[in-house]
Amino acid sequence: MGKKWLKQQLLAVVDIGGNSISLEVRKAKSPYKKDKKLSNKIREFCGLAQGIGKDGLIEDSAQDSALETLAAIKAEIQRLKAEGYNIHTRVIGTAPFRDAKNGQAFAQRIKNEIGFEVETISGEQEAELAGLGVLAHFPTLSGIVIDTGGGSTEFALLENGEITHVFSLPLGMRRIASSNDPEGFIRDQLAKLPIEFHNNTPIILTGGINRALAKAYAHAHDFKIHKYDRKGKPYEIEQADYNSFIHQIQIDPDLQEEFKVKSQRRGQIETATLLIDALQDVVGAENVILTKANMRDGVRAQMRAALEQQKVTVSQNQKPESFEFSFA
User: Fold this and answer.
1) Which of 140, 165, 127, 175 shows the shortest CA–CA distance to 294?
2) Is 6 within 8 Å of 23 (Cβ atoms)?
3) Domain edges within the chain
4) Based on CB atoms within 10 Å of each CB, which residue in 16, 112, 143, 327 is the most buried?
């Protein structure tokens, strides 16, 4: 498998989460770097977690909105194929597919109407992918990756570049916000976090709302997070300083506007602040690492490894669109 062949390979990750549905496409030769020549991202806030009713079913309106976004994603993938690229695609389904009574029926509907085979991953698998995504940028890092989505929060303990423990809790933004007692709900859930995560190492905040807050912090302090990611040098600050910032931005809409927090994320800041405060008390971390790394980076790390190890047979007449993966 030569370098010339590798240049024509694209890695497409479709992430169907509780808050949003997104497509990210990267070249296999540089899977963590945006390429201006490609359509790098499609993202729509479809709110599947919010669309799960009291009966435990994803409502039809939420499904229809998701399918509309997925149809646009499929069209974009087909456009790139028409330009001559070999596109390897994985479609990842997270908390909504795990939690909803009709989650697998919805996955089947996606297959029937769009043609995507949804991989419904467990919370522990999602935590592993979040950890792999961080290690793709920082191969020897130690800390606790905390990946917060709409329906769940995943935890991956990193020790000198190894993922040693993973855990998942139903602590997504929408789930917390819908609770009658958000602080009590967070407290009760975090009480289930295994003792291995109570180790006072830095916390590494990932997931949509955490990236939005990190981006706001970077904007306020005039630096670019992705530059630290590319250098493999994590941007680390004191937890107290970061908490002070997010409390300040939480109560000031003008700051949210100034620091370019997207409107869809502004309503989640209060909930995220409650969670981050509680995490500090439980985990005992003194420092926070800000990064743009995400679970999709972990998926691409697996896909790139599969290409490099020739786990997929590729010829001029065979252009695979999906991979088979197993988790330990």
Assistant:
1) 127
2) no
3) 3-122, 139-292
4) 16
